[in-house]
Amino acid sequence: MCFSLQSSQITLLLLLPHFTTLRLSQCLFSPNHGTKTTLCPFVCEPSRALLDEKFKVLVKNAAPGAELTLRSFHQAEKNHHWEAFGHYVCDSSGTLNLCEDLSLGGTYEGVEPMGLLWSLRPVPGSKAGLRVRKTNVEIPMEVTISVYQGHLSESFSEHTAVAAVLVERWYMAPGVRRIPVTEYNLTATLFLPPGPGPFPAVLDLWGGGGNLVEYRASLLASHGFAALALDYLTNKLTVSEGRMMKNDYFEDAYKFLEQHPQIAGSRIAMLGLSFGTSMTLKMAVYSEVMKLRCAVCYSGSHIQPVKGSIEEIMNYFSENQEKTRINENQEIIWHDLLLPIPEDPALKVDMGRVQCPLLLVVGEDDQNWPAYVSAMDIKAMMEKAGNSHLLTLLTYPNAGHLIEPPYTPHTRTSLFRTAQTRHLCMVLWGGQPLGHSRAQEDSWKKTLAFFREHLYGRKNTADV
């Protein structure tokens, strides 16, 4: 079926079952001859998929050599608008394939099949400091991909798209269960994969902003791992009683997983980002309760008063506030807060005592934490202790601090509210869009492989 474009825009958005192909057919006027040529179909497949799954975008039967702009548009949950776009030229058959053809300009360049997602940026005129973060993982991230004639870079609302498709990016695969958890006074959400289990599990910790962040845990469950998203900084007891949690809060979360009837209690890992890395390393080394099968740490450090509580660790960071830098754009840089690496063993986790496989993921352009410098010291400590065979280190030259699941738009700078002071400030996270996107895709793939190896076991998948 083909529709002719007259004076008004005609857009057909088909809603199909979960994770399927969506096709849209319309007509495209030839810019060279003024004749009508059929654009049939405009394909995005799968149109419904997990956030970390690639899609293919294909335009057929356009005018040979036609100049087209492909644009993505996303309205975030707080109603902020985001866009990305690429400039393309169709081949001699009037075909355009984002998996093969170059973007000549726009928010990304080159052959970038997922550029319409990872290069999303706030539309011109938006407030400063925005960041895409999913709060309701039970509904998808919706992105409209549109085709325009010519190479456009602005004022898209003043032009008529010749075709459009709605793409849904899900954080929960069909059958994944989301279960709020209150046992042990936890503020947490458990995500269970489809089926009876028992499943290996991951205790998922985010950073110093606090709050219950679920989108990474829901993706892990979509890949076969039970995952517990844990709020350990702004949880209900902290808010109601005004006191930080003790280390046994993490042990209680571990016990909850260990005792759950659908979880394989001997196959539990921890995953931390930023301040979550501090707590993951601390518990992996010093807890007598938590017998972790493996640990994954993103963008963090082992530097902390090792006998301190969460509050004492936070206070240690605050004592070094004079090392904070502010650049010409009034963006806060906390990179030097923990530097130089202390020699005092009481101020850094004894990495020589790590007994489980450890994956470290760091961006060399992290402007928020000294993650790369810390990783080099961790590597040296483990080599000296003879346990470096347990370490897998991934470093990415152009990645910043916020290394998230694949195709999440890169955020170099954003507004941030610390859990300790609740002060809102503009923070420089670092990273360059293309290099950061590559790091997110590669590290996520290797994180999933790491968990499969050490939680399922290459020879033991069937017995989990």
Automatic annotation (TrEMBL):
Q: Which GO terms describe its molecular function?
A: fatty acyl-CoA hydrolase activity
Q: Which SUPFAM superfamilies does the protein's record reference?
A: alpha/beta-Hydrolases (SSF53474)
Going by the entry's taxonomy, the superkingdom of the source organism is recorded as: Eukaryota
Q: Which UniProt keywords are listed?
A: Signal
Q: Which residues form the Acyl-CoA thioester hydrolase/bile acid-CoA amino acid N-acetyltransferase domain?
A: 52-183
Signal peptide segment: 1-25
| Name the record gives this protein | Acyl-CoA thioesterase 19
A single Gene Ontology biological process assigned to it is: acyl-CoA metabolic process
Q: Which residues form the active site?
A: S274, D366, H401
